[in-house]
Write a structure and sequence with these properties.
Length: 55
C-alpha cells in the first residue's frame, strides 16, 4: 500500500526530492503520491520534517 500525505504537510518539497521513482508531485498547492508508482520504500516519510506522510 502506498504512503499518503496528511494535512500536516507544509509543501516544503523534501519528500518529492527524496522519492527514488518520482512518485510524488505537487498539485493544487499540495503534494500527492501516485499510488501506482510508489515503491512503499519509506524514503519520503523518513525525510518529512513534519511527519505528514503515513503508510
Amino acid at each position: 500500500m502506498a504512503h499518503t500525505i496528511t494535512d500536516a504537510c507544509v509543501s516544503c518539497g523534501t519528500c518529492e526530492a527524496e522519492c527514488p521513482v518520482g512518485a510524488i508531485s505537487e498539485g493544487d498547492g499540495k503534494y500527492e503520491i501516485d499510488a501506482d508508482a510508489c515503491l512503499d520504500c519509506g524514503a519520503c516519510a523518513a525525510a518529512c520534517p513534519t511527519g505528514a506522510i503515513e503508510g
